[in-house]
Write a structure and sequence with these properties.
globular, about 100 residues, two-stranded antiparallel ribbon
Length: about 100
Amino acid sequence: MKLLMIIFNFAIRDRIEACLSECELKSYTLIPEVHGSGKSSGKHFESHIWPGKNNIIFIAMEDEKFNELKPKLKEIKEKYKTEGMKFFLLPLEEII
């Protein structure tokens, strides 16, 4: 099992959620309105100086499901370069 963490600009949330739906991933945790700074996307601090905000989604999944999802996420990342999106795959030892 793996834990996927996706950090993305709130403006592309509907695209991310559509992608998850296409891959039949219905269980995930969304953390809305987080702040941060990225190399290509710049700072998102929801202020007049650095507008914008991010979201984080966590998804526990089997390796095979990630292999199905990965190209779709890469496509979104390429299409929305300036909005900012990163995803990280972490080992998941146990679900309690």
